[in-house]
Automatic annotation (TrEMBL):
InterPro entries reported in the protein's UniProt record: NADH_UbQ_OxRdtase_su1/FPO (IPR001694), NADH_UbQ_OxRdtase_su1_CS (IPR018086)
Enzyme Commission number(s) of this protein: 7.1.1.-
Gene: nuoH
Subunit structure: NDH-1 is composed of 14 different subunits. Subunits NuoA, H, J, K, L, M, N constitute the membrane sector of the complex.
Organism for this UniProt entry: Helicobacter ibis
PROSITE patterns according to UniProt: COMPLEX1_ND1_1
Homology family: Belongs to the complex I subunit 1 family.
Spans traversing the lipid bilayer: 12-29, 75-95, 115-136, 157-178, 190-211, 248-266, 272-292, 304-326
Designated name of the protein: NADH-quinone oxidoreductase subunit H
Length: 331
């Protein structure tokens, strides 16, 4: 029991440290990719190829003054960024990042907790993340922040419905809510990947997940094209950085989720070992998210909500019904 607790604590520490570092590195990669797409310069002065720009940004975040606006609810204002970062990391608990491997005579399972309702846990904790931007906007005593909080409530709650419904159809086929079971269901090679039997569910989950990430062009919560920054208008320093880390950590974990749910997870891909295969899949989706940010203009709130409730929601319901009838007919 003691060994299990120590092992779990080590895994938690590694996940937090590794994904925090990856979030910082992802900002550098994104700047370089956006520069290539949009014919800009990008980071190129601080260190070779601008790599040390990450360190410069970190120093700036840690040393910048932490300001609390007058009239703000100080306790909630300070807690809100912690909620965003914490939920992003807690949602990673049931995600199997890599296949099992042996080290120092021990079998290592790269998952914090293999619970039998893994998908529900991820969706539930991800939905709780709405309290971060919501409380941040309400507590800041700023009309711009509260408008960002209202956008957060509308956008995140709407697309949570679509992401949840989109996963019902794959769950009907697999018969389990465990992410490891879903991964093992696709162990028969590329032909067994769920993206081929559930292409609509794949697209719906990808669209909904992208919208929930608050990424351009769906960044209505913190609209970078506006003068203010939505719910984060009054934040500075490391508290603003925690929102930032939470966003990138969620982007990486979503890439892992999509890879496990629809693209065979960490099963070997031909001659490519499973661990390398899932890393390649995750890197592809991260690049896809950055590509979308570089290529597409912002959408209006009414366009985004129209897409959610008039297109994605009916498609998700229809896909669940068709999958259910086909599955019953096959049995």
């Amino acid at each position: 029991m003691t060994l299990y607790v120590i092992e779990t604590l080590i895994k938690i520490l590694l996940v937090v440290l590794v994904f925090s570092a990856l979030a910082g590195f992802a900002t550098y990669v994104e700047r370089r990719i956006l520069a290539k797409f949009q014919r800009r310069i990008g980071p190129n002065l601080v260190g070779p190829f601008g790599v040390l720009q990450i360190l410069a940004d970190g120093i700036k975040l840690f040393t910048k003054e932490d300001i609390v606006p007058s009239g703000a609810n100080e306790i909630i204002f300070r807690i809100a960024p912690v909620i965003t970062a914490a939920t992003a990391f807690i949602a990673m608990a049931p995600i199997p990042f890599f296949p099992e491997f042996e080290a120092f005579g021990m079998v290592i399972r790269p998952i914090i907790s293999d619970i039998n309702v893994g998908i529900l846990f991820v969706l539930g904790v991800g939905a709780a993340g709405i309290y971060g931007p919501l409380l941040a906007g309400i507590s800041a005593n700023s009309k711009y922040s509260i408008l960002g909080a209202a956008r957060a409530a509308v956008q995140l709650l709407s697309f949570e419905v679509v992401s949840g419904l989109s996963l019902l159809a794959p769950i009907i086929l697999v018969g389990s809510l465990s992410l490891i079971d879903i991964n093992n269901y696709q162990s028969g090679g590329i032909a067994s990947w769920l993206i081929f039997s559930q292409p609509i569910a794949f697209l719906l989950f990808l669209f909904a997940g992208y919208a929930e990430l608050n990424r351009t062009p769906f960044d209505l919560l913190e609209h970078e094209a506006e003068v203010v920054a939505g719910f984060a208008t009054e934040y500075s320093g490391m508290r603003w950085g925690m929102f930032f880390i939470g966003e990138y950590a969620s982007m990486i974990s979503l890439s892992f989720l999509v890879s496990i749910l629809f693209l065979g997870g960490f099963n070997p891909l031909g001659f490519i070992p499973g661990g390398i295969a899932i890393v390649l899949k995750v890197m592809f989706f991260i690049f896809l998210f950055m590509w979308a940010r570089a290529a597409y203009p912002h959408v209006r709130p009414d366009q985004l909500m129209g897409l959610c409730w008039r297109v994605l929601f009916p498609l998700a319901l229809l896909n669940v019904l068709v999958t259910g009838f086909v599955n019953l007919g096959g049995n």
